[in-house]
# Entry
Amino acid sequence: MPRLLISGAAGQLGGDLLDTATARGIPAVGFSHAALDITDRTAVARALDEQGPDAVINCAAWTNVDGAESHADRAFAVNLKGARLLAEECAQRDVLLMHLSTDYVFDGESPRPIPENAAPAPLSIYGASKLAGEEAVRAVSDNHVIVRTSGLYGRDGPNFLLKVLHRAARGEQLRVVTDQVTAPTWTGHLAPALLRLIEMHATGTFHLTNSGRTSWYEFAVSGLRTAGLASAVQPILSAELPASARRPQHAVLDNCAWLHAGEPALPTWSVALDDYIGELRRRGRLPASLVTA
# Structure
């Protein structure tokens, strides 16, 4: 297995990647945003030269979907400029770049699962910035793998599920949309799959998510039930939610390239949810006030 450099390693996915690699004896070094600003060419070049990785996994990103609508320059700085800069520096050193992207590059108008070759049509600044980053990586280097995923959650967040659990623990009203369908993906399942892609020397574009589909409303209700939390959730429509950015309504990715490579489908979203809640419970990270005996 090649030596890895992981940017954005303080985040949910980056942290799980670093932990998984370490547990498997894979040489890997992780950099938080504070330690490595991917928009700083000098810092990126120094990190690559000092660490000498065979592959870079870029988990650094601007992920504030609504915030991107009013801060497009910041979103594009990280999601486009940072991605392109990483790709350029990796290409100069013949280093594989794995770049993480999102289902939000699609409009989600069709209820069918979205294959890798579907035409992107982002609805938001965030989605447009991630698509621009993808295109920059493809233009700069042939030695890349782009992985689109969806609804990421893991570790101590921040993520949708933990927000729901903690709001329930505080007794706050929960209102969640029923008309946005996706495949929530646990970083604890995604991280090993990403390492497998590198082990396979994969290149190109892959969709990689937990299997199945669910609405955010059903996901929230299932999460509360699994955690043993007693809280009602009010179903609402997207139009009732005060959000700056539009979201795709059907953002379920078809993981066909992964399956065609002979790899097994990732566990279903419900299994992933059970595994994550179990991990939170073992670590004592569930809201204690509402956990049943």
